[in-house]
Specification:
Elements (H helix, E strand, L loop, with lengths): L4 H21 L6 H18 L3 H8 L12 H4 L2 E5 L1 E2 L2 E2 L2 E4 L40 E4 L1
Parallel strand pairs: 1-5
Antiparallel strand pairs: 1-4, 2-3
Helix pairs in contact: 1-2, 2-3
Pfam families: Urease_gamma
Catalytic activity: urea + 2 H2O + H(+) = hydrogencarbonate + 2 NH4(+)
Keywords: Cytoplasm, Hydrolase
């Protein structure tokens, strides 16, 4: 089997997300890479399922709470950017402050799909999400 660099990266994100899901199920707080992979994988899969950019952005910020991650992790992740494949092509999804509170939904999207209305959707490759040099955490499909 030959995989492109993008496909290899996607499998790496999935593998890290799977480790994160198992640790979260056991109540083990996630570290920075695990939290990023957990949220990124969820976004990529929802794009593949055909959810809108706005739905993904809204739901992604409800996946993990501060109690799900190690101390300091929420402050380390100011933004996550992923490029899921949607039915009509690849789009950039930016999630600002993805770990916001203690009340969260589930990774399967049961509670995480309600639109909070506080994130504007982006549908293209030039998402102006960087704020004066703020570091972004990226994972591409």
């Amino acid at each position: 089997m030959k995989l492109t660099a993008k496909e290899q990266e996607r499998l790496t994100v999935f593998t890290a997300a799977e480790v994160a899901r198992r640790r979260k199920e056991r109540g083990v707080p996630l570290n920075h890479p695990e939290a990023v992979a957990y949220i990124s994988d969820w976004c990529i899969e929802r794009g593949r399922d055909g959810q809108s950019v706005a739905e993904i952005r809204s739901g992604a910020s409800k996946l993990l709470g501060r109690e799900d991650v190690m101390d300091g992790v929420p402050e380390m992740i100011g933004m996550i950017q992923v490029e899921p494949v949607f039915p009509d092509g690849t789009k950039l999804v930016t999630v600002h402050d993805p770990i916001r509170s203690d009340s969260v939904g589930t990774a399967d999207g049961e509670d995480a799909d309600a639109d909070s209305g506080d994130d504007a959707a982006t549908d293209g490759g030039d998402d102006a999400a960087t704020d004066g040099g703020e570091d972004a955490t990226e994972a591409d499909e």
